[in-house]
Amino acid sequence: MTTSTSEAPVHLPAPPAPPVRLAAEDLRLAYDDRVVVDGLDLALTDGSFTAIVGPNGCGKSTLLRALGRLLRPAAGRVLLDGRSIARTPTRDVARVLGLLPQTPVAPAGLTVADLVARGRHPHQSWLRQWSREDEAVVAEALTWTDMADLGDRPVDELSGGQRQRAWISMALAQETDLILLDEPTTYLDLSHQIDVLELVARLHTERGRTVVVVLHDLNLAARYAQRLVAMRDGALVASGTPHEVLTEQLLADVFDLEARVVPDPVAGTPMVVPVRRLHR
Amino acid sequence: MTATVDTLRGTTPPEPGGRPAGRAVTVRVGRVSARFRWRSVVVPVVALVVVVLLAAVSLGRGDYPLGVADVLRTLAGAGEVSQRFVVLELRAPRTLVGVLVGLAFGLAGALFQTFARNPLASPDVLGITQGASVGAVAAIVLSGGSAGALLGGLGVPLAALLGALVAGALLFALAWRAGLDGFRLVLVGIALWTSGNALTDYLLTRAQIYDAAAAYVWITGSLNARTWDQAAQLGISLLVLVPLALAAGRVLGVLQFGDDTARGLGVRLASAQAAVVVVAVLLVAAAVAAAGPIAFVALIVPQIAVRLTGGWRPPLLASGLLGAALVTVADLLTRTVLPEALPVGILTAAIGAPYLLWLLVRGRRTTA
Fold first, then answer.
1. Do the chains contact at B266 and A116, CB–CB below 8 Å?
2. pTM
3. Do A118 and B254 touch (CB under 8 A)?
4. Is B254 an interface residue toward A (CB < 8 Å)?
5. DSSP 8-state code for residue A85
């Protein structure tokens, strides 16, 4: 450490590493006999914002489903706060970990306020169906996501961007420390993609949520996430900050893409400029 | 997380626009709390009043007519001996069975439709009632033969119950694939429905003419000549099943969402679905054993109920009570307005069949 005087202050002790909230250990995931993910290890620390990226069919959504206890691992295990998630009761998991599926389905005619109220389900019981706390949390979630004025509107009449806000509002009302989102920007135009990702980023910065998101758009992933996890063929290829992960070599290895990586002129994060597809 | 809530407590109530479900009524007593939509309370109450009045009218009709006031007085314990005999001994079992059967079908329909997320999913379409018909017809038709001696010994109601349970078990076994998918359930159910009909038809072709006539009345669903025993058996079954069905209401609200969302909200999906289907099948089995498969009540009523209450899923209590009202009014009509004493199931089928067509036509339009 004596040589690093010009850099960080030397005598400050390193801050304690935040605890790992969600981890995968030697994970193998399969649908019937088809193995999608094999031998994967991953650790997600408290307060982190991670984006999982990779080409179509690389197993990133499958991994997210396993992290959210929607898919039982064929081998290995997922640990939530150090405890096997498969052995934790569903309800206990739902109080710590919330998830937003790729294209969530709301029953026809359901209003936004009713949808967000549904987020309270893991905190309710047959006798305690609508406490003051439930009411306050739901109202606040609607306001925070700027959906308060649309509370009485049916979810199926909303635009794609509004609908995604409503579902994020529900995830917020669930009051979980961790939130997993599977491609929340699918089918949205660019400005609404930005809108939704800004909201997700605020979940992280303002509400202190630990966020894991599966994303297709590398430039947006690099801009919003602190950490990228790149997957290919069911294996984890690279993991680290956007600068560490989004290299020209990695784009060739993972996406078969020849590309230049330049600094994003707005955010300074790495930005991918594709050249052509590499054929192997 | 609790800190967020504590800071918020002072700022409630939220601004009017953000008020979740403003037309809802919230009830809180100590740690017990619930929230109702205003109409979901009014509709069952009105339906209950309608059922009582219809039943009173129904009890007064027949060869020895009585006014509603006389009927109500007799039910309250007063009235002449002859009135008591006519109302309590002759007519009450029939009316009571009608009310209870309607209640069971309405509830079962609401349970099936909600969890399958499909207005087509009713015990009629899913083959449960056809299973009961196969059992009953087999008991009637085969009772002479050696193979049917056992079935005949069971009696028609028990054979029907057995048939419904077998159909329910088959539905479950064939549709289950690491969970129940609503669409798959409906497809398997329709296959069971047609198989059940084919089997019933086969049995009828082999029957003696008198047996065939008796079987035919049974499979259309009839309330004729019900006894206190039948009413009591059904009543006791419902005393157990109705609270179970209503207890499932909270989890049903979440099962309406996709599987992933429901599990993300802490629902143990497989066991919740299994519990709902088992309760619904038992409700149908009990009702069919008492009165035969009164057609389409379970299909129509939950959809009427959801439109009346203005919610987003078939309400359980309202569906049950509206089912009771529908069967009672259909029974009243078959005994009064229509020329001959038709089985009640003919009338509900006459209402239900066009409705089913409308549902299919409309469904295709919305998906196209």
1. no
2. 0.86
3. yes
4. yes
5. G
Amino acid (1-letter code) at residue B239: L
Q: Considering the domain boundaries, does residue B29 fall inside one? A: no
- The ipTM (two decimal places) reads 0.88
Containing structural domain, residue A231: 19-106+176-277
DSSP E strands in chain A: the ranges are 20-31, 34-45, 49-53, 75-80, 83-84, 97-100, 178-182, 210-214, 227-232, 235-240, 257-263, 270-277
Residue B14 lies in a domain: no
Contact criterion met (CB < 8 Å) for A139 and B250: no
Nearest-angstrom CA–CA distance, A196 and A181: 11
In B, which residues are within 8 Å of A111 by CB distance?
21, 312
| A-chain residues near B263 (CB < 8 A) | 69-70, 90
What the block records as the tokens of B313 is 């899923």
Q: Report if residue B330 sits inside a domain.
A: yes
Instruction: Tell me the residue range of the domain where B175 lies.
Output: 35-367
Q: Does any domain span residue A166?
A: no
Domain with residue A99: its CATH number is 3.40.50.300
Tens digits of per-residue pLDDT, A177-236?
A: 999 999 999 989 999 999 999 999 999 999 999 999 999 999 999 999 999 999 999 999
Tell if the CB–CB gap between B35 and A94 is shorter than 8 Å: no
| Residue B54 falls inside a structural domain | yes
A142 within a domain of the structure (yes/no): no
Q: Looking at the domain assignment, is residue A136 inside a domain?
A: no
Distances (CA, A) of A19 to A44, A82, A92, A177, B48: 9, 10, 19, 13, 57
Indicate which CATH number applies to the domain containing B227.
1.10.3470.10
Q: Per the structure, how many domains does chain A have?
A: 1
The alpha carbon of residue B243 is apart from the nearest alpha carbon of chain A, in Å, by: 13
- For B175-211, the pLDDT digits (tens) are 888 777 778 888 999 999 999 999 999 999 988 888 8
